[in-house]
Design goal:
Elements lengths: L4 E4 L4 E4 L7 E6 L10 H19 L3 E6 L6 H10 L3 H18 L15 H13 L3 E4 L2 E4 L37 E6 L14 E3 L1 H13 L3 E7 L3 H16 L4 E7 L2 E3 L2 E2 L10 H6 L4 H10 L6 E3 L1 H23 L8 H19 L4 H21 L5 H16 L19 H16 L3 H13 L2 E6 L2 E6 L1
Helix pairs in contact: 1-12, 2-3, 4-5, 4-6, 5-6, 8-9, 9-11, 10-11, 10-12, 13-14
The protein binds adenosine monophosphate and zinc ion.
The site of adenosine monophosphate has 14 residues, from helix 1 and strand 9.
Length: 472
C-alpha cells in the first residue's frame, strides 16, 4: 500500500500520515458561517475536504468527520435584527442552500454537522475549565482568553505575538481587556440580541470556542486531522489550539491542512467587484456542476486556484475526452486476443493514480494518470479490445471515481444545457444507428433514436449524401 504523506501546517513540512487509532481517522473541518449563500471559494475548500475524506477511504481508512455550522455571530445577529426575524429563521434558508450545494457538487455528507447554537452548554463548560486553570478572565460581562498565559501561543502560524492585532470578529475597543491581543470566549448580550444564560450572565459564545467545544464532543480531545481554508489559520485555528490545549492539556489535532484560496480572474472575490459567484449563479449561466467540480478538484489544494470561464470550458473538454473513450468502450466488440497488455496498462494506471494521491493529495497528478489511461485505452480500442477488457477498464475508472466523483452518471445538474447530455461521438453513433435502422426498414427503431436525439436537443437532417445533425 502507498504510504500517505500530508503537508502539515503545524511544523510546515510534508509528513508521513499515521492515524491515532489504526484504521480509523477522525477529521474536523471548519464549516460555513450561514449568513449568506456560500460562494465558490467556500466550495473550493469544501471540495478539497471531500477529496481528502474520499482519499482516506480509498486508502482503506474509516473516517469520522465533523463540520460545524456557525449559526450565531455578529453579522448574523445584525442581519436578523434588520430583517426583524430570529436568527434561526434568518439562517434556515442558508443552511438549506449549503446542503443543496453539497449535493449538487457530489460532496459527501459527513457524520456530524454540529451547530453552534445547539452546543452552548459544551462551550460554557470549556470556558469554565479555562477560567479555573487561569487561562481566562472576566471583564465587563465578557470572558476573555489570556494569551499571555499560554506559552505555546503562535505555534501553528508562527505569528510574532507583538504583531498580533485584535481578531476581526472582536472589536477590542468595545471591551475592557487586560491585553489587546486577548480574544473573546463569551460576549455579554446587548439589548435586543439573542442570548443564552451563563455563569457570567446572558450572552453568546465567541466564534473560536465553538470549534474547540464541538470537535471535542464529536471527535475527542485529540484527533487526527483539522482542515480549513488558509484564512482560518490565524487567528481562528491558533485560538482553537490555545483554548483546547489549555483546557485539556493534550494536543488538539496532529495534522493541520489548509487549502489556498480561490480567486476570480486574478482578483480576490468580493461583492463590490461583482465576481463573487455562488454555485447557483454558475448553474444559471448554463454551466455544468460536473465541470465545476472537475475544475475545483484539478488544482492542488495548496495552490491558489484562479477561476475563469475559459478554465471551465477547458474542464468540459477534458471531461468529454473521458466520456468519448467510455462511449467507444461501451460499443466496442471484444476480440479473442491476449488480455495481458490491457490488464497491465490498467494496473499501471491504478498505481500511478494512488501514488499521486498519496503524495499530499496530488489531484492534478491523479487526473494526469486518468488522461494517460484514456489515451492508452483509445489505442487498445483502435487495435482491438481483449476479452474482459471493457470490465477491466470500467473497474479501474470507477475506483478512481470514488475519489474524484466526476464521471458522467447522466444526472449531473446543469449537464443538459452544456451538451444535451450527449457527446459528439455519442450523437455520431446514434445517427449512424438510425441510418442503419432506416436502411433495414426498421422505421420504429429509427423513430425511437430520432426521439432520443431530439430530447437531447439534437436535430437530424436527412440529406441525399446521408444524415447530418446539429445541436438545436
Ligand atoms: P466562512 O463561512 O467564511 O467561515 O468560510 C467557510 C470555509 O471557506 C472556511 O474554511 C474558509 O477558510 C473557506 N473560504 C472562505 N473564502 C474562501 C476562498 N476565497 N477560497 C477558498 N476557501 C475559502
Ligand atoms: Zn473552526
Amino acid at each position: 500500500m502507498n504510504s500517505l504523506k500530508l503537508f502539515n501546517s503545524l511544523g510546515r513540512c510534508l509528513q508521513e500520515f499515521e492515524p491515532l487509532e489504526p484504521g480509523h481517522i477522525r477529521l474536523y473541518t471548519c464549516g460555513p458561517t450561514v449568513y449568506d449563500r456560500i460562494h465558490i471559494g467556500n466550495l473550493r475548500t469544501f471540495v478539497f475536504e471531500d477529496l481528502l475524506r474520499r482519499t482516506l477511504r480509498f486508502f482503506g481508512y474509516r473516517v469520522t468527520q465533523a463540520m460545524n455550522l456557525t449559526d450565531v455571530e455578529d453579522k448574523i445577529i445584525a442581519a436578523a435584527l434588520e430583517a426583524d426575524v430570529d436568527i434561526g429563521t434568518f439562517t434556515a434558508p442558508h443552511v438549506a442552500s449549503f446542503f443543496d450545494d453539497l449535493t449538487t457538487l457530489r460532496i459527501e455528507r459527513v457524520e456530524h454537522y454540529p451547530r453552534a447554537t445547539e452546543h452552548v452548554a459544551e462551550m460554557i463548560a470549556m470556558i469554565e475549565r479555562l477560567l479555573t486553570a487561569g487561562y481566562a478572565y472576566c471583564a465587563d460581562d465578557c470572558v476573555f482568553f489570556r494569551i499571555g498565559a499560554d506559552e505555546d501561543y503562535g505555534r501553528l502560524s508562527g505569528i510574532d505575538l507583538d504583531q498580533v492585532r485584535r481578531g476581526e470578529r472582536v472589536r477590542s475597543d468595545e471591551y475592557d481587556k487586560e491585553d489587546a491581543r486577548d480574544f473573546v470566549l463569551w460576549k455579554g448580550a446587548k439589548e435586543g440580541e439573542p442570548a443564552w444564560p451563563s455563569p457570567w450572565g446572558p450572552g453568546r459564545p465567541g466564534w473560536h470556542i465553538e470549534c474547540s467545544a464541538m470537535s471535542q464532543k464529536y471527535l475527542g480531545k485529540t484527533f487526527d486531522i483539522h482542515c480549513g481554508g488558509v484564512d482560518n489559520l490565524f487567528p481562528h485555528h491558533e485560538n482553537e489550539i490555545a483554548q483546547s490545549e489549555s483546557a485539556n492539556c493534550c494536543p488538539l489535532a496532529r495534522y493541520w491542512l489548509h487549502s489556498e484560496h480561490l480567486t476570480v480572474d486574478g482578483e480576490k472575490m468580493s461583492k463590490s467587484l461583482g465576481n463573487c459567484y455562488t454555485l447557483g449563479d454558475l448553474l444559471d449561466r448554463g454551466l455544468s456542476a460536473r465541470s465545476i467540480r472537475y475544475l475545483l478538484a484539478s488544482v492542488h489544494y495548496r495552490q491558489q486556484l484562479d477561476f475563469t470561464f475559459d478554465k471551465l470550458a477547458a474542464a468540459d473538454r477534458a471531461l468529454k475526452r473521458i466520456d468519448d473513450m467510455r462511449f467507444r468502450l461501451a460499443h466496442e466488440v471484444e476480440k479473442e486476443i491476449d488480455p495481458g497488455p490491457l490488464d497491465r496498462a490498467a494496473g499501471r494506471f491504478e498505481n500511478a493514480f494512488a501514488t499521486a494521491l498519496a503524495d499530499d493529495l496530488n489531484t492534478a497528478g491523479a487526473l494526469g494518470a486518468v488522461f494517460t489511461f484514456v489515451h492508452t485505452v483509445n489505442g487498445f480500442i483502435d487495435q482491438g479490445l481483449p476479452p474482459g477488457g471493457r470490465t477491466r477498464v470500467h473497474a479501474a475508472l470507477d475506483r478512481a471515481d470514488q475519489v474524484l466523483a466526476v464521471l458522467d452518471t447522466g444526472d449531473w445538474a446543469g449537464a443538459a444545457e452544456s451538451g444535451g447530455g450527449l457527446s459528439d461521438v455519442e450523437i455520431d453513433a446514434l445517427v449512424a444507428a438510425r441510418s442503419e435502422a432506416r436502411a433495414t426498414r426498421d422505421f420504429a427503431a429509427a423513430d425511437r433514436i430520432r426521439d432520443q436525439l431530439s430530447e437531447a436537443g439534437v436535430v437530424v437532417e436527412d440529406a441525399p449524401g446521408g444524415s447530418r445533425w446539429k445541436r438545436g
